[in-house]
Design a protein that fits this description.
Layout (H helix, E strand, L loop, with lengths): L2 H18 L3 E9 L4 E10 L2 E4 L3 E5 L4 E4 L4 E9 L2 E2 L5 E6 L6 E7 L3 E7 L5 E6 L3 E6 L5 H25 L1
Helix pairs in contact: 1-2
Length: 170
């Protein structure tokens, strides 16, 4: 096998492997009831896929910031197509407690929109509700391109050095 063949095969396999992976994408969201504005971040979704579960959702509420992980959701299903999130396919419900809040219930549903119920230990409760919400997509690069290029070049350089060493020994 010649060095040219090996280099061509390496480049082709890297290109095919990269094209086969769906790029991860995060979504910022917000909704307001006119008094309170709730913002947050949905993380861990692929750019294409139906019924995906977010790995983490961060919600900035009135009293606290809540980080919902896999164990905090009773529903967690989101459809993403071409890095676009369809609000009519989101079904998320999570419940969490923090040191500040006795219980926070977070909902994103097509029929009711976005809701965040925050309850303090003294029964003070704030509900922020809006039947519409906004989303913006933030693509996430899983492997920084400069690092990937450096790794490819160093690997090919190593193969070339081994090939030269083998030719000298023969």
């Amino acid at each position: 096998m010649t060095l040219k063949t090996l280099a061509a095969a390496s480049c082709l396999s890297m290109a095919m492997a990269t094209a086969a992976l769906a790029a991860p994408v995060n979504f910022n969201f917000s909704f307001t009831d006119g008094t309170n504005t709730i913002t947050g971040l949905i993380e861990g979704l692929d750019s294409d896929g139906l019924g995906q579960a977010a790995s983490m959702i961060t919600v900035n509420g009135v009293f606290d910031t809540y980080v919902f992980g896999p164990g905090d959701f009773s529903f967690n299903s989101i459809d993403v197509s071409g890095s676009m999130l369809d609000p009519d396919t989101i079904f998320v419900r999570g419940t969490i407690s923090t040191s500040t809040v006795a219980q926070a219930d977070f909902f994103l549903f097509p029929s009711s929109g976005g809701e965040l119920f925050e309850s303090l230990a003294d029964f003070t409760r704030v509900e922020t509700f809006n039947p519409t919400w906004t989303f913006t997509a933030t693509p996430v690069s899983s492997v920084p391109l400069p690092a990937g290029g450096f790794l490819l070049l160093s690997g090919l350089g190593g193969v070339a050095a081994l090939n030269r060493r083998k030719k000298r020994a023969a």
